[in-house]
Amino acid sequence: MFITFEGIEGSGKSTAIKRLKDWLQEKGQGVTLTREPGGSRLGRTLRSILLDIGNNDLTGETELFLYLADRSQHVHQVIRPALDEGVGVISDRYADSTVVYQGYGRGLDPKILHQLNDVAVRGLWPDLTLLFDLEPEIGLKRAMTRNLQDGTCASEGRFEAESLAFHTRVREGYLTWAAINRDRFRIIDAAATPDEVFEQVRAAVADVFSIA
Which of 34, 48, 79, 147 has a 20 to 30 A CA-CA distance from 42? Predict the structure, then answer.
């Protein structure tokens, strides 16, 4: 069981991820929670580079290869070992983020990005991807408020500092990519209440993995 959560900044993935883990454990499924960037030891160093607002001069290509390095190490050290031991994995972001953010957001070729990601993950794609869909204005407001409360505006605010036009392209890119990969994507209405959002998540997971 390999489930990934995707969405624009501030779409509310973190809360639902924790609730999903609890629900799956109640059903007897072992689960590992992880995230990108930063799921491995090397990844934590790369995260500090990728999300630091001071690194706003990174080119789209530099950003791309840093994410690919993070992902390759993440799969090798965290995701694949867990799956091989029969433990489910839930990741907050994965390869689709790069296809969408650096592709539809930055203007790189999504097809080439998919191919590069396939090399980085050695063909390991999720069984289910939950896309938290939300208006960019709402998501950005949520994300900026969260960063302010956590004191991470500088250390983790590089994408929040991007223009609304960029986040709009990302949102539209996610919806386009989900339509192309409709066999594994499920779209979640992230504007709903937390309980309603989780019910959408629970229903999707129960359906795909036949959990009563």
Answer: 147
